[in-house]
Every structure is written in C-alpha cells, then in structure tokens.
UniProtKB/TrEMBL annotation, chains A, B, C:
Subunit structure: Homotrimer.
Protein name, as recorded: Enoyl-CoA delta isomerase 1, mitochondrial
Pathway(s) it belongs to: Lipid metabolism; fatty acid beta-oxidation
Pfam family, one: ECH_1
Species annotation: Nothoprocta perdicaria
Length: 243, 243, 243
C-alpha cells in the first residue's frame, strides 16, 4: 500500500475511508497474506490525522471522523496479515499510530526524519488506545515521557527507544521490507495469527468495549473553544512555515 | 522543595505530614506549575521511611503512619504539577519511592550514591503500590529481581536500569533540574496533565480501592514480633556503624 | 536438579510427573531453600515438551499430559525456593518455559546454544501462560516478535534481549549458579518469598482460574488433523536430520 495523497498524506476522512475499504478487501483476499505500508511522497510517511477535519466542523462530522480513525486502527492492529511499515519519511501523531500498529517497523536511516505521538504539542491528547499501542511497543516509562512531552524522535533515537525495529538506507528500504515479509510468511499462518491475536486481544477489546464512549469523549474534547483555538493557531503556524 | 530534616531526612510522621500539607498548598496554587525535590543535607537525598515510627509503637500509631505514607504517594504520583527529583545523595526505600513517583529523575553522577527499594534487606516488604510504581518505571523483570534482592544500585547502574533518567555532575544538578522543568512546562498544561493522568490512573486507583485493606495489612505485618525483632536488629546495626 | 533423560531430556509425561513429585518434596523440605536446574546431557538443556505425547494419542492422554505441563509450571513459577536455571545447552519451547519460570537464568557462553519459545515454527501455539511468563521477563514487544516468529535466539542474543540474565563460560556455569543461589539466600526468606509472590500472583492466578478451559483448548487444538499432520512432518524432519 503506497500512501499518495498530496501534499503530505494527511489522514483525512476520505483517505481513511478509502484505506479502510482497501484493507478490508486485502484482509478478505485469501491470496493476500501481507501488506507493506510506505509513502509515494518524498520526506513524509504521512502527516497524521488531518487537522482540518477536527476544526470548525459539526459535532456529527467529528464523530464520523473519529469512528473512521478507530476503524482503521481496529482493522490494522487486529489484522491477520503480516503488516510492515516501511517508513520513508517523517511520521507524526496518527501516522505514527499506523506504524506502531504494524508487526514490524523499518525506517529510512535519515536523522531528519522524525516519528512520535506528538499530540500534546498541539494541545490535544492521544486517546487511551494510542497509548496502549505505544506502551505495547516501548514499555510504560518511555511512553509516559514521550507522550507527555509530545516528542518527535529522530530515526536514530526512535531505534534506540524501540519505536522502530531497524534503520536502513532509504534506497534499500523497500527491499528490506520485502525480505522481512518473506521471513514472517515462512511461519505457518494459523500459528502466527493465533499468537498475534493473543498478544493484542486485550488492547483491541478495550477499545471495542468503550468505542462509543471514546467517540463522545473525543467530540466533547475537540468541540471545546479552547481546543479549537489551539488547533487554529497550530494551522496558522503551519501555513506561515510553508509561506 | 528542599528536604531538610537532619541528620538524614528520615520520612517521619511529622516530616510526611508537613510535606503533604506543603504539596497540597502548591497543588492548589495555580501560580505553581512545577516542583523540584532535592536535599539540603550532603550525601543523602532521604534515608526513607523512619524506622522508629515502625518499631515499638501502638497499632494506632502504625496505622496513622502508614496513612501518611499512602497520602504522600497519592498526592505525588497523581500530581498535576511537573515533578522532578534532583537526587543529590543516596535514596533508599521510601526515599526511592518519592523519586520514582516524579515525572523525571536526575541523579548526581557519583558512584557512592545509591538508590533502590531495599525493603527486603530489612526483612520487610515493599507493598503492591511501591511495586506498581517501580514496574511502571523499569518494567517487570528488573523490578522483580531488584525487589527480591533488595538491591541498592549505584548511580551509574541506576541509569543503566532506567531507575533514573540521567546523571549529571553534582554541581550542575540544580541547573539541569530547572532546565528539565522549563522543557516540560513548555507543553500546554491541560494536554500534559490529561496524558499523565491517563498513564497513572490505573495504578493510583488500585491503592484507592484497597487503601484501608493496605493499612490493615501493614499494621498486621509490622506488629509481628519477628518483624519487630528484625527492625530492632537493623537499628542496632545502624547505631554501631555510626559509633 | 540434573535433568537426565537421554537422548535429549524431552519433557515426557513420565519425566514431568517425576519432576513434579521431586519439586513437591523439595518444596516441603524446610531444609531445602534453593534449587539449581541443569542438564547432565551435553549440548542440550532440554528439548522441550515431548512431541510423541502430543501425536497419535487419545484425547484423554492429551488432557493428562497438558495437566502435567500446567502443574510443573504452577509449581515452579510459584515456588517459594530460590530457583536458578544453569542452562548448559539449547533450550527450546517447553524447556525455555522452565528456564523463564526460574528466578535467575545463567547460560553457557556458546553461540551454538539457542533458547526461545519456538512453538509457532512447529505450527503450534504457546498458550497464554507461556506468553505471560515471557512478557514478564522480556516485555511485550520482544515477546510479540519472538513468539510470532518462533525465534530461537543464540546465547549472546538471548542475553541482549533479556531472556537470560548472564552468560558465563560453560566450565564456570555451576560455580556461578551456586554463587547466585548464595546471594539470593542471603535475604530473609519471608521477605523474598512475599515479594516473589506479589510479582507473580496475577499471572499464576490467571491460569488457576482458566485451568480446565486451557486443557480443553489444548486438547481441541492438538486433536485437529491439520495440527497432527504438522507434528508428524516435524518429527519426520527430526528423524532425517539424525539419520
């Protein structure tokens, strides 16, 4: 799967819906046993959740958007396929969540590329299932510190913290991803799938049990005038940077 | 906050009560957003819980003392403020718990300074919430081994195990702590606070749900003649060392 | 305890029953406070669960065998004694579980010796309590990856991942194990035992609560024709290798 939604692969409602349908098709296609995620856009894996979907819209829109985010994660974190992130650019916030939900993460060895759950920098908060996914990858202490500071880690730092599994030169990233997929597919599917489910079920179930509550929580939080103001300021800053 | 209770900053009932009132005031003072803990006494951050409070006293006294220990931890681990431990001396047992409950731990780079939950060396047992706090910092395996052996780790070892976040030369400790506070305060308060609460709530709730049971458990354990004997022997040993 | 069941210390029903009775005797012998596990057979600590017990037998036999596996683990993981694994050879699958259930693991510094929970390589699945034990030692991420791939790690890699606590030259393994036991026995028994129980109780209770369900789950899984076929193929492969 190549993310290609210029300029920065923002995870808009349309993008998430299309991705969800695509993943569902692959999941149900018994000939497809693995998927590699990468970006067709230089320097950016994905910019994360599209802030324009969270700003100045109706509460119904916020709820619909959030359900789409939940659905992608449920599908990806619980996928029976082997999932590999070939991270060939920066990967903040929601984009980092996608990477963390894969079975294996390879990142281009470029210290300019950063990755992390930096929500708190924007004045918003990663929900509990972002946190659970992160803790399952890096442990409680690293997650606690990184989430509170909203840290974006350079590729070498991400490797050291365990956020990604290995770094390779960018030109070798796709070959390496294919090699990793081959290694994982060498295992009997049913044994690998049952094992994966055993590792992830409790965290998946936690969102499934609280899914609607989590939507309401998001809508209530994002609708606050103070949060809307934070997001508008952040978007202004992004525009100025580009300008 | 500078601990200054000669000779060794033992956490007596009076000291804990004063600290609790002080922390409550700071917590309620909206102008105060961060607190740094350090010691005014050379070579010792704090000696930990005052053993004289646990030895030869009434069960009522033990219960009162233990509630004070619980309250400090609930206040500190659940604080909305940025909390930094500037550990400028040794930090055993209850003193280590205070450090582990902060958001960030900086220790003076002196291999003679030690830190750890060494309760089992004294024949007593760190309760489940000491353990939960420790596991959240260093993970299950390091906690299991260190708690069973009652290990006191030198500063370099503590860094390697993740018990502290960094070591700096003692003369730079306070400046570094101030710089860390500035870094953490650069984040929007509400996002940082909600994130912190999300990371720590389940462990805090566990004590809140079992608080009175934990008091009774402590009182029952500490009142045993065998435990009292262990503590008296330990105090004798300390006195001889000083002599 | 020296495992000596040629040719490869397979954990057969007889072997497990004998080991269980032996451990129970030691546990009830107040003069015995520690136990070291090692192998009397060169190059192999133990080959793990005996596959012949899981292949071509009755469902009653499978159930009896699985209860024996559960009982060994419950006894070992919950032992009041200090338990040290002196791993002087390879230690796959069920053999790795025994090592992981000890308080401390020392492995011979020989890169040809491997250790890991490689069940998925055989098309079978490590049950949740194997997984819980593994996660408690190495954390969630390393366990997730290693279990899905059914990895067997060389001794140096096992040290790096935290599967074992230290490597020593094979000729010094027994002396080192004795030294470790002495170090752990220097602590007051009751404090060490209560602490150990506190660290392990939730994982032990999880199997105790689901013990019969876990037996039925194993019997149902292992009785499948597809699984039986996998195991027969694996045994054929082993025979050819030897031949």
């Amino acid at each position: 799967v190549k993310f290609k939604s210029p300029p920065v692969n923002s995870l808009s409602l349309d993008f998430l819906t299309e991705l969800s349908i695509g993943l569902e098709k692959l999941e149900n296609n018994r000939g497809c046993r693995a998927v590699i995620f990468t970006s067709a856009i230089p320097k950016i894996f994905s910019a994360g959740l599209d802030i324009t979907e969270m700003c100045g819209k109706s509460t119904e829109h916020y709820a619909e958007f959030w359900r789409a985010v939940q659905n992608i994660w449920l599908r990806l974190y619980g996928s029976n396929m082997v999932t590999v992130a070939a991270i060939n650019g920066s990967s903040p916030a929601g984009s980092c969540l996608l990477a963390l939900s894969c079975d294996y993460r390879i990142m281009a060895d470029n210290p300019k590329f950063v990755i992390g759950l930096n929500e708190s920098q924007l004045g918003i908060v990663a929900p509990f299932w972002f946190k659970d996914t992160f803790v399952n990858v890096v442990g409680h202490r690293i997650a606690e510190r990184s989430l509170q500071l909203g840290s974006l880690h350079s590729a070498p730092e991400a490797l050291q913290l365990g956020i990604v599994d290995e770094l390779v030169p960018e030109e070798k990233l796709q070959d390496k991803a294919a090699a990793v997929v081959a290694q994982w597919l060498a295992l009997p599917d049913h044994a690998r799938q049952i094992t994966k489910s055993m590792m992830r079920k409790s965290v998946l179930d936690r969102l499934l049990t609280h899914q609607e509550e989590d939507v309401q929580n998001f809508v209530g939080f994002i609708s606050k005038e103070s949060i809307q103001k934070s997001l508008r300021m952040y978007m202004e800053m992004l525009k100025k940077r580009k300008g």
